[in-house]
């Protein structure tokens, strides 16, 4: 069986790379919102929504990739988005737990 991968430019923005980028931006927004939610008590929904979106899209990109790093499928960005999304989910979850009085809350 001959597997022939087409050469992709290092700087080309392929659909996989684009989705990875979108997921990473959503995850970073979720991490920022989660940090603000821990500090100020606002932004929990944004943190959780951004985290879920980044983790789902990142996981989808990783699952759909047919090649490894450098092939243009966005697998590295997908893994990064997956991790960033999970961090946003943890921060949002801590903010929810803190607001409910489970973890070192203000009560």
Helix content: 55-70%
**Mind describing the biggest β-sheet?**
none
For this structure, the quaternary state is single chain
User: Which series of helices and strands comes N to C?
Assistant: HHH
* pLDDT averaged over residues: 87
Rg (CA only): 17 Å
SS-based class: mainly alpha
Q: Give the low-confidence spans.
A: none
Distance between the termini: 65 Å
Query: Could you say which overall geometry the principal axes of the C-alpha atoms support?
Result: elongated
Output the number of helix runs: 3
Approximate strand percentage:
under 5%
Number of strands: 0
Describe how the helices and strands are arranged.
Elements: H1 15-40, H2 44-64, H3 75-100
Q: What attributes characterize this protein structure?
A:
107 residues, mainly alpha, 68% helix
In short:
This protein has 3 helices and no strands. The chain is mostly helical and 107 residues long.
Can you characterise this structure?
- The protein is an all-alpha fold and 107 residues long.
- It is 68% helix and 0% strand.
- The protein is elongated, with a radius of gyration of 17 Å.
- The termini are far apart.
């Amino acid at each position: 069986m001959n597997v022939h991968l087409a050469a992709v430019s290092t700087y080309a923005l392929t659909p996989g790379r684009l989705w990875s980028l979108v997921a990473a931006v959503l995850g970073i927004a979720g991490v920022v919102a989660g940090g603000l939610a821990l500090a100020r008590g606002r932004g929990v929904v944004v943190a959780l929504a951004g985290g879920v979106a980044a983790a789902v899209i990142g996981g989808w990109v990783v699952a759909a990739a047919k090649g490894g790093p450098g092939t243009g499928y966005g697998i590295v960005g997908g893994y990064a988005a997956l991790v960033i999304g999970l961090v946003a989910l943890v921060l949002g979850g801590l903010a929810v737990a803190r607001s409910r009085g489970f973890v070192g809350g203000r009560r």
